[in-house]
């Protein structure tokens, strides 16, 4: 148990000896000890349990007839250096208008592209740590995972980890088989490695979409976008744009303008002037910008926005929602701040307890 707790701590999770942890976290620990975990619960069983807490929170009281299609939110995962960032760059350049070529600097950790008149939101969480952290805090922000695997390197430890995360989040997975331009690429080998992981490519009679791409030479990018839209079509990717906004904090920082938060609107529409509570902070949306730094007045579902006006910096993974009044927002933020303080104390105490046990 001490070794398990050490690994948990190493991953930023301060668990006590008899604490329940989620599958994803357990899977991570199992990996560290050289096991290949498999989740026992079939996905069908989960459906029967009804909507998740988060779903209830985001869509509480939602009239199904008010739901409208929204752009899918896609996360790109994979082993170090397999080409996630290059792939995201290639996707962006495919879609960014000519006058913006060269200005590739990413304003926020999330952006939206349009392909054949349809929008796709990408979350740029290059390391899966950020993704894991958000998941550990209960945030479910993505609809589809793109797993990048380099054709020369094949399946690597972090490929497996990323896959475990995507499965734990029950995301449909599309494989982007990258670097096919390399002379050392061995597509057949990677295809069979994928099959071994239960990702049997369609070409092999399975149902996993594997798109062969070269992010560097921008080959297969359109096929990948089409695959994403195809998968999105088979899912109920919907939200109600005509209600106050609810969503998740993707990232936050302070710059000369004060606290700046990148928010992903998941349901409802966020408007300039709205009062929001984001985790343990609150404020009035003074200004909003899209992923290219252009000012926005309104942000419908699946839009990533940079927001100014919060009193403090929220944490990645915090939920945000529109409040009725400034007073209500402040009270809620203060209650949460106090609760977080309390939890930190509890965690510190269980940590001290752990050290005592380790010494004993
Ligand atoms: P981390 O963020 O460190 O996990 O890496 P990453 O997955 O974002 O990989 P990145 O995009 O930084 O690419 C790593 C290296 O692979 C870079 O030198 C890229 O130029 C190269 N690379 C990426 N895609 C391709 C490709 O399609 N073909 C070739 N030949 N090289 C590529
Ligand atoms: Mg990268």
What does this entry look like structurally?
The protein is 34% helix and 24% strand. With 360 residues, it is an alpha+beta fold. A 6-stranded mixed sheet has the order 3-4-2-5-6-7. It has a 6-stranded antiparallel beta barrel with strand order 9-10-16-13-12-17. About 7% of the residues have low confidence. It binds guanosine-5'-triphosphate and magnesium ion. The site of guanosine-5'-triphosphate has 16 residues, from helix 5.
Give average pLDDT, whole number: 83
Distance between the termini: 14 Å
Provide the gyration radius in Å: 21 Å
The percent range for strand residues is 15-25%
Family: Belongs to the TRAFAC class translation factor GTPase superfamily. Classic translation factor GTPase family. IF-2 subfamily.
Main location: cytoplasm
Protein name: Translation initiation factor IF-2
GO cellular component, one term: cytosol
Question: Which key phrases capture this entry?
Answer:
globular; alpha+beta; 34% helix; 6-stranded mixed β-sheet; single chain; 24% strand; binds guanosine-5'-triphosphate; binds magnesium ion
Fold blueprint:
Elements: H1 2-10, H2 23-32, H3 43-48, H4 53-59, E1 68-69, E2 73-78, H5 84-95, E3 110-115, E4 118-123, H6 128-136, E5 144-150, H7 157-168, E6 173-178, H8 187-196, E7 210-212, H9 221-233, E8 238-239, E9 246-255, E10 258-267, E11 270-271, E12 275-278, E13 281-289, E14 295-296, E15 298-299, E16 304-310, E17 319-322, H10 326-359
Parallel strand pairs: 2-4, 2-5, 5-6, 6-7
Antiparallel strand pairs: 1-8, 3-4, 9-10, 9-17, 10-16, 11-15, 12-13, 12-17, 13-14, 13-16
The protein binds guanosine-5'-triphosphate and magnesium ion.
Guanosine-5'-triphosphate binds next to helix 5.
């Amino acid at each position: 148990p001490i070794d398990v707790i050490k690994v948990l701590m190493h991953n930023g999770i301060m668990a006590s000896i008899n604490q329940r942890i989620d599958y994803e976290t357990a899977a991570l620990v199992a990996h560290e000890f050289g096991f290949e975990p498999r989740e026992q619960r079939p996905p069908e069983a989960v459906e029967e349990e009804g909507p998740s807490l988060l779903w209830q929170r985001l869509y509480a009281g939602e009239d199904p007839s008010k739901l409208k299609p929204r752009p899918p939110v896609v996360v790109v995962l994979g082993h170090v250096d397999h080409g996630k960032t290059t792939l995201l760059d290639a996707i962006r350049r495919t879609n960014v208008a000519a006058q913006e070529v060269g200005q590739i600097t990413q304003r926020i950790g999330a952006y939206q592209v349009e392909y054949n008149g349809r929008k796709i939101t990408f979350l740029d969480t290059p390391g899966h740590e950020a993704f894991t952290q958000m998941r550990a805090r209960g945030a479910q922000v993505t609809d589809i995972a793109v797993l990048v695997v380099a054709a020369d390197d094949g399946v690597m430890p972090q490929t497996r980890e990323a896959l475990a995360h995507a499965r734990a989040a029950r995301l449909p997975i599309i494989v982007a088989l990258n670097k096919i331009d390399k002379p050392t690429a061995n597509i057949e080998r990677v295809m069979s490695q994928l099959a071994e992981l239960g990702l049997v490519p369609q070409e092999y009679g399975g149902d996993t979409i594997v798109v062969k791409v070269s992010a560097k030479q921008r080959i297969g990018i359109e096929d990948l976008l089409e695959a994403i839209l195809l998968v999105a079509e088979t899912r109920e990717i919907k939200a109600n744009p005509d209600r106050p906004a609810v969503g998740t904090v993707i990232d936050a920082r302070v710059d000369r303008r004060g606290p700046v938060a990148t928010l992903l609107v998941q349901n409802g529409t966020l408007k300039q002037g709205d009062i929001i509570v984001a985790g343990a902070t609150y404020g009035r949306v003074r200004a909003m910008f899209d992923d290219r730094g252009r000012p926005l007045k309104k942000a419908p579902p699946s839009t990533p926005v940079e927001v100014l006006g919060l009193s403090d910096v929220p944490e990645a993974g915090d939920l945000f929602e529109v409040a009725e009044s400034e007073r209500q927002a402040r009270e809620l933020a203060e209650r949460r701040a106090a609760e977080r303080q309390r939890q930190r104390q509890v965690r510190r105490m269980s940590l001290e307890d752990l050290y005592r046990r380790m010494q004993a």
